[in-house]
Amino acid sequence: MLSFLHLRDFALIDELSLEFFPGMNVLTGETGAGKSILIGAINLILGERATSEQVRTGCSRAIIEAVFTTSEENVPLKKTLELYGLDLKEELIVTREISRSGRNICRINGRIVPLAVLKELGMILVDLHGQHSHQSLLKPERHLYLLDEFGGDPLLKIKRHMVELINRRQKIREKLNEHGISPQQRARQLEMLRFQRDEISAASLSIDEEKSLRERLLLLDNMEKLLSAVNRAYTQIYGNNNHVPAVLDIINSIKEELTSLEKIDPDLSPFIQILQEVSTALTELGHDLYSYSDRLIFFPEEREEIENRLELYRRLKSKYGNTVEEILSFEEQCRNEINILESNEEKLLQLEKDSQKLQVEIDALAEELTEKRKEIAEKLELQITEALQELGMANARFKIDFIPKDVPDRRGKEELEFLFSANPGEPLKPLARIISAGEMARVMLALKSILAEQDNIPVLIFDEIDSGIGGKTIQKVSEKMMNLGKKHQVISVTHNAHIASAADHQYYLYKEVLDGRTTTRASYLEGEKRLLEIARMLNGDTTGEITRRHAEELLKNFRKDSRAGQYNPEE
Length: 571
What we know:
Elements: E1 2-10, E2 13-19, E3 24-29, H1 35-45, E4 61-69, H2 75-83, E5 91-99, E6 104-108, E7 111-113, H3 115-125, E8 126-129, H4 140-151, H5 153-177, H6 183-203, H7 207-221, H8 223-238, H9 247-260, H10 269-295, H11 300-320, H12 324-343, H13 345-390, E9 397-409, E10 412-421, E11 429-430, H14 437-450, E12 459-463, H15 471-484, E13 489-493, H16 497-501, E14 505-514, E15 517-524, H17 527-539, H18 545-557
Parallel strand pairs: 3-13, 3-14, 8-12, 12-13
Antiparallel strand pairs: 1-2, 1-4, 4-5, 5-6, 6-7, 9-10, 10-11, 14-15
């Protein structure tokens, strides 16, 4: 619930603090006293955009701070806070700081957050009904939830069973998705896997072969250079070319000349030995070069064969992997998947049958849920229509529109939208299209009074719901608001004595001039002060005996439940 509201330098208010209590709270006072300022401040706490004009004249910034008492049972609030990295504590402190320069700061428990977070939390914490309100019941996505909760266990049991079957079917579909959703898709998947496996297998790829082919292609590309170099080397070793003596002849000539001098100087013997070794090595080199040149012969089609083979490697790499290892790994993966699909074919067919059987059950439950919802919808329509008539809308019509879906999901086979018409001859329209603020407030009050158990939004604020109504109708409005206070915290801005008398707690707002400046003040009313305010609200007379007795009677009538904070004539 909203337990505390503090304003500083906001509009006419210099500083004002209000404590709110469980049950029904009302704000009363003369027109222009500042009640609408408080509603505007609460709207800002709920995420409405602020303007620099809302800062009190002569001040640089305005501060609005609201304290909400929370509970672990408010699961939507807890999940939303967790989504933004915030913890659910016993108190939730929401702060808006509005600067005259236009800067705006939003905080939750001291942590700065975007404005959108306030708006999202506001939808969970407060329903504000008035001319500038955000109202959860205007949102069609809430209508289905509220109808189901209103239907209670018999309806929710069907829904839970349907959701359970949908979850089971979803798990089966996930298993089927791993290997194809249908037998036809599985057959296509098997065909593709077999093709990929056979294509790679038929290629007989080898890391060593690819390397060898690349080396051979490099040799073929440089064959002319190789032959030229080998022939030139062979010629220079053995034969004369352009009258240049052969290297082998030169070596042998030097060796013979030194040999002839060996007898003169035996120290030449090692040199002769080396020359002999060089001559032998050159002779063997020449023979090897000759043999090597014979091996450089190739057939013209060899290059084409090598290039075709390497092109196969390139093509398979573009499809299955960047390396031969990756391609072979992909082939092994194909084999494994084929084995799984082939071995699980019978199991997958059974899963498909189970899925179809569950779908039949889901469809049947969805139909049953729809019929049950329509029964509950008729009861809810009747109760809300009766509540609207009690609230002075004798010709009002309320209808729940069923919008069918092609396939049932966890919400069922339809969406819902609440429709309303205030006058004969006017078509039924969605709640969001109700133009009159008075009509809107009474429709919301009727809905809230019927759906109080189901609606988990803790704080309900009604801004001048009494506008344009009186007599017996205002009595019914007061009673319904009082009863709502048993399930929710209700805060109401009102000019009506009946509504004020029904409240557990009452604040009186008034203007005060200090040092030539007007500001809004608030006073908590009890006992005689509250009696006088109720009398003023009846006809502006606080001294007349008849008016006083009327005020006493109103307060007495609304004390049947010994509600705290109300006037006791004996005090």
